[in-house]
Amino acid sequence: MTVTWGIFEIEGDSFDLGHLDETVISGEIGGEQHAILVEFSDHCFTEDALPDDARPKFPSSTRKDGRFCVKRYQASLNIWEHLDRAARGSVWLGESDRCLVVKLTTEEGEDPLHYVIPFTLERWKGDKRAKLKMRVRSAFLRDSTRRVATFGQVKFATLVELTLKGGSPRRNYDRNRKKPW
């Protein structure tokens, strides 16, 4: 079953979520083509409710009281650009099984923002279209004062090869390790 998000309508505005539909991508790694099923969580465009939150509830949110967030939605419109860049380069290792794509952005006159895209990559047997599954668990903007913990960097091609073999990259816990900011 393919996951599709459709269009979310609120107060006369329509938000097309089709760019976050489940998709199979393919890339050459080590001279071999590898298909990866990519799926996105609603956390790419929802947030937890705040006290007295007037934002509309997203009906099928995996959050207890998930609210549609226009800011997250707008940022997600370029998510494929960030994922493509990461797939051709490197990703940061996050906590536990998560990896991160971190894009540094700066609007003129504003503090730098980090667009953080946590994902997991796993061997996948549930779909004949792909041997790997990338679950984009969230995507959010953070200002430079609220950094996300990273534990080293790994080439995406290496991450794919390790995952296919049942392994995972080692995380670097040294306090002087390289960081994305």
Most strands sheet: 8 strands, mixed
Structural class: mainly beta
Poorly predicted runs: none
Radius of gyration: 17 Å
Total strand segments: 12
Content of β-strand: 35-45%
The residue fraction in helices comes out at: 10-25%
Order of helices and strands: EEEEEEHHEEEEEEH
Instruction: Give the termini separation.
Output: 39 Å
Give me the number of helical elements: 3
Shape estimate: globular
Average pLDDT = 90
Oligomer: single chain
Write structural notes for this entry.
A hairpin with an 8-residue loop joins strand 9 and strand 10. Strands 3, 4, 7, 8, 9, 10, 11 and 12 form an eight-stranded mixed beta sheet that branches. Helix content is 14%, strand content 35%. It is built from three helices and twelve strands, in the order ββββββααββββββα. The protein is globular and about 50 Å long. With 181 residues, the chain is mainly beta.
Quick rundown:
This protein has 181 residues and is mostly beta strands. The protein has 3 helices and 12 strands; from the N terminus they run E-E-E-E-E-E-H-H-E-E-E-E-E-E-H.
Please tag this protein with its features:
181 residues, mainly beta, eight-stranded mixed β-sheet, two-stranded antiparallel sheet
In terms of topology, how is this protein built?
Elements: E1 7-10, E2 13-16, E3 23-29, E4 32-40, E5 46-48, E6 66-68, H1 70-76, H2 79-87, E7 90-93, E8 99-105, E9 113-123, E10 132-136, E11 140-143, E12 153-155, H3 156-164
Parallel strand pairs: 4-10
Antiparallel strand pairs: 1-2, 3-4, 5-6, 7-8, 7-12, 8-9, 9-10, 9-11
